[in-house]
Amino acid sequence: MVWPILDRCVTIPRGFPDMPSPSTARKIADNARFLSEEQLAAFERDGFLNMPGAFSVEEMRDITRWTEEVQNWEEVPGRHMAYYEDSLTKPSRRVLQRIENFVPYHEGFQGLFRDHRMQGAVEQLFGEKATLFKEKINFKLPGGDGFKPHQDQQAGWWNYAPIFITALVTIDETTLENGCLEMAAGHHKKGMVGGEWAPLTDKDMADMKFVPYPSKPGDVMFFDSFAPHGSALNKTDKPRRVLYITYNKASAGDHRVQYYADKRKSFPPDIERKPGETFKFRV
Ligand SMILES: O=C(O)CCC(=O)C(=O)O
Ligand SMILES: [Fe+2]
To answer: Is residue 210 part of a domain?
Structure first.
């Protein structure tokens, strides 16, 4: 794993290794059969796999605390990437939408992405070793917007690797009211159904059936980068925070640094924008 070039104010935590530690590697090997044959078959059939209760209440306490730590970090150009959106309920207010690229600066999340229930399971689904591509927390705060149906591959990911798998960890309970994920099963083998950098059109979705997947803290969902999905806005007065960790096949290369370098240019985090500059979220 090669990490982003860090600016002079930031140091990688001491002892952060480039390779999984022997104990982590052993854990991955021990848990190489974490997903059952039935689960692997369901992922193959649907393009996603729901795994309720993968993380315990205690583990979620840690993950929630880490999320708050990342949210409270001072924003510095060139470091983690925080994006804001216009509130739908309080016009003229900008609210935090998502934070990306925080793993290099957070030991807890470094352990989590290598966990046998995350990278280990994704390696089973790929049938080979996986490499971290990107990570984000979508906050969907009260008044936060939903996501038009899309395939993640449409968001420029085709530039980096032919296929990705994302492991989603639910931090706050997700419901119909706060915009849980909605998935369309069985369309992931058709390649990119929609255009580049655009959500799916009504025509693209003519034969798709989107089903909501409400989830509890600690639930995990794995999904293929061609699996169509979307979600509604958050109509409640509480955040709907969800963690997304995305991997590609190790054989397809390590593209993380290039991806974030490109994204900083084409869609910079708010702190890196020049006054008056606006960027439109496309997909
Ligand atoms: O968090 C959500 O509701 C969906 C987000 C999503 O699909 C994305 O960020 O690509
Ligand atoms: Fe998505």
So the answer is: yes
Q: Does residue 49 belong to any structural domain of this protein?
A: yes
6 within domain boundaries: no
Whether residue 171 contacts residue 242, with contact meaning beta carbons closer than 8 Å, is answered with yes
> For ligand 1, is residue 48 a contact (CB within 6 Å)?
no
Count CA atoms closer than 13 A to 179's CA, side-chain side: 26
| Inside any domain, residue 20 | no
| 7 or 31, greater pLDDT | 31
Closest C-alpha residue for ligand 1 atom 10:
152
Q: So what's the pLDDT on residue 92?
A: 84
**Distance from residue 9's CA to the centre of ligand 2 (Å):** 32
User: What is the domain-level CATH number for residue 185?
Assistant: 2.60.120.620
29 alpha carbon – ligand 1 mean position (Å): 31
Q: What is the DSSP letter of 273?
A: S
Nearest CA to ligand 1 atom 3: 231
**How close is the Cα of 225 to the center of ligand 2, in Å?**
8
Record the pTM.
Answer: 0.89
Q: What is the largest CA-CA distance in the chain?
A: 53
Pocket lining: 229 vs ligand 1, CB cutoff 6 Å: yes
Q: List the strands of the sheet with 229-231, edge to edge.
A: 147-150, 229-231, 181-184, 210-213
- Do the Cβ atoms of 112 and 186 come closer than 8 Å? no
Domain of residue 115: give its range.
31-272
Asked if pLDDT for residue 280 goes beyond 60, the answer is: yes
Q: Is 141 close to ligand 1, i.e. is its CB under 6 Å away?
A: no
CA of 179, closest atom in ligand 1:
3
β-bridge mates for residue 201, sequence order: none
Tally of domains in the chain: 1
Distances (CA, A) of 157 to 60, 111, 151, 236: 29, 25, 10, 32
